[in-house]
Amino acid sequence: MNDFVYREGRLYCGDLGIEEIADSVGTPFYCYSLPTIRRHVRVFEESLRGVDHQTCFAVKANANLAVLAALGRMGIGADVVSGGELFKVLRAGIDPGRIVYSGVGKRVDEIDMALTAGILMFNIESEQELEVLAARASILNKRAPIAIRVNPDVDPETHPYISTGLKENKFGIDIDAALDQYRKAVRLDHVDVMGLDCHIGSQLTEVKPFLDAVERLKVLVSRLEEDGIHLRYLDLGGGLGITYEHEEPPHPSEYGSAMVKAAGDLGMKLIFEPGRVIVGNAGILVSRVLYRKETSGKTFIIVDAGMNDLIRPAFYNAYHEIGVVVEKGIGREKVDVVGPICESSDFLAKDRELPVLDRGDLIAVMSAGAYGFTMASNYNSRPKAAEVLVDKDKFYLVNRRQTYDDLTSGETIPDAIMEEGD
Ligand SMILES: *Cc1c(COP(=O)(O)O)cnc(C)c1O
Q1: CA of 242 to the centre of ligand 1 (A)
Q2: Share in percent of the chain as helix, strand, coil (round to 5)
Q3: Mean pLDDT in residue range 302-318
Q4: How far apart are CA 115 and CA 97, in angstroms?
Q5: Same domain as 59, residue 139
Q6: Which numbered atom of ligand 1 lies nearest the CA of 241?
Q7: Residues labelled catalytic
Q8: Cα–Cα distance between 174 and 157 in angstroms, integer?
Q9: Which of 278, 296, 328 is the last residue of a domain?
Q10: In the predicted model, is pLDDT for residue 161 greater than 70?
């Protein structure tokens, strides 16, 4: 159940017709439902009721400032993976004490920025990173709260590109090597060893890999206790999947109660880093049909959104349901829905049975609220799409469509080039 529903053959977000929004802001655009985002947060929080925890939204799933501000107002923190994300969540008013910083490649300037902001915790992914962090904290005369991200070597049984907790992945520190790292970390000046962290992958559709990871983390926690290293936080990452097509991921309440049962009795504050499950099904990408084109044996529906707007189909061969914004009574046909970009991988759906579409029709690419706009690019010098946030009977243009001037705003032509003849 979400806020995107058909009434008398027309797709709505809350009380607003998608067609009316399209007429107002143009296409393509992302449309997010604020009530749906809020409901997802409440359901997630409800599943962890009674347990000391902090939810830190994984900003890479959706970094729109208005979305981040809405989450912040609900007491949600942030899991950031870059200085840019840190900048955005601070700008959105998220409490620095609720920010964790993950990622294998934190630069010195990014580390300094996070130390200055006073974030909750750095999730450390390598020995060198820890050394650099300790040195920067010393120079800035700050204390650096850390967790070590361990790689528990469990198979999340998801797409290989979004699995992160296997030995062969670049993420975290091998769980068998973590004990030594902790022993080293507690001896560092300016470093406060606060927690243990893992994140095993994304779009998980079973509880079991999460529980396997928790079991391995618990072994490490008790081993650390024996060494007199007492941790306050256990960060269990994100990764809970959503339904794009036929997946049946655990409901957040099932996930939450399983996690609480597994880790709730450690006396540690639990941290969760959900991304997709909060915003994925709270957003759609709306696009207009430019052309239909029939070749021998294939029909292409060419739309004005491309892989630069939504790369998941091209990148992961991901499935997104395609809805027709104004339903049409006439027949169905099997088509490829493709974008205008000069790449064969520029498709939104392949061999999909859809109502017969023609020039001017609007389509909605469903479940596009996570890893949609955040992965958008200017490839083919296409301005990025607009983002709209709907709250019942109101919509807000929360990110205007880029202009052509935006495309060149950072670029300069050296005088020397213009002075040269040919
Ligand atoms: C991507 C990521 C998340 C969020 O993953 P979802 O599948 O969107 O919940 C959380 N933590 C870390 C470290 C990540 O890299």
Answers
A1: 13
A2: 35, 25, 40
A3: 97
A4: 11
A5: yes
A6: 7
A7: 342
A8: 19
A9: 278
A10: no
